[in-house]
Amino acid sequence: MSETGTQPAFVELVDRVVSGLVPPRRVTATEYAALTCNRCGRCCTDIFVPAGPERVAEMAEARDRSADDRRWLAGLVPVQPVAGGWQYTCRHVAQLPDGRTACAIHEQRPRVCRGFPFEREIRDWPECAWYVRVVDEGGTPP
Ligand code: SF4
Ligand code: SF4
After folding, report:
1. How far apart are CA 40 and CA 129, in angstroms?
2. What's the domain count of the chain?
3. What is the pTM of this model?
4. Digit-coded pLDDT (tens) for 37-94
5. Pocket, ligand 1, Cβ cutoff 6 A
6. Which residue range is the domain that position 32 belongs to?
7. Is residue 65 included in any domain, yes or no?
8. How buried is residue 141: exposed, middle or buried, by Cβ count under 10 Å (0-12/13-18/19+)?
9. Does residue 59 belong to any structural domain of this protein?
10. Domain assignment present for 77
11. Is residue 34 in some structural domain?
């Protein structure tokens, strides 16, 4: 197999291992720029914080944090402990009849929600529109 043939196959193998056997969709930078949220809700209901509920409550009160960060922290509802921290959901997420979700404070949502996914490739949730790998026109990661 040629080197150019091996590299994409290897990249795909790494993607499968890293992302729980669901290979990310390959998109060009132009396609990435056109991605839009599908409102699956995973980023609002599967929030990892490396701190338990008591600590999060303290963080939500800490005056050395911005009001915006404190507002986001105050919205977290504990779901369960997970490796290295806790899973939280957001008290402002609403489930719609069609299976999508909506943010009850969309116009006033915190910066961390407004900027997500911060031009990153998401690896946590295969459902996310940004669960992709950006490749060049030839299909190779830059
Ligand atoms: S404030 Fe809105 S966008 Fe942010 S996590 Fe909560 S439901 Fe999601
Ligand atoms: S996980 Fe991704 S696609 Fe789903 S609601 Fe969040 S940003 Fe949108």
Report:
1. 9
2. 1
3. 0.84
4. 999 999 999 999 999 999 999 999 999 999 999 999 999 999 999 999 999 999 999 9
5. 44, 75, 90, 92-93, 103, 105, 109-110, 113
6. 20-133
7. yes
8. middle
9. yes
10. yes
11. yes
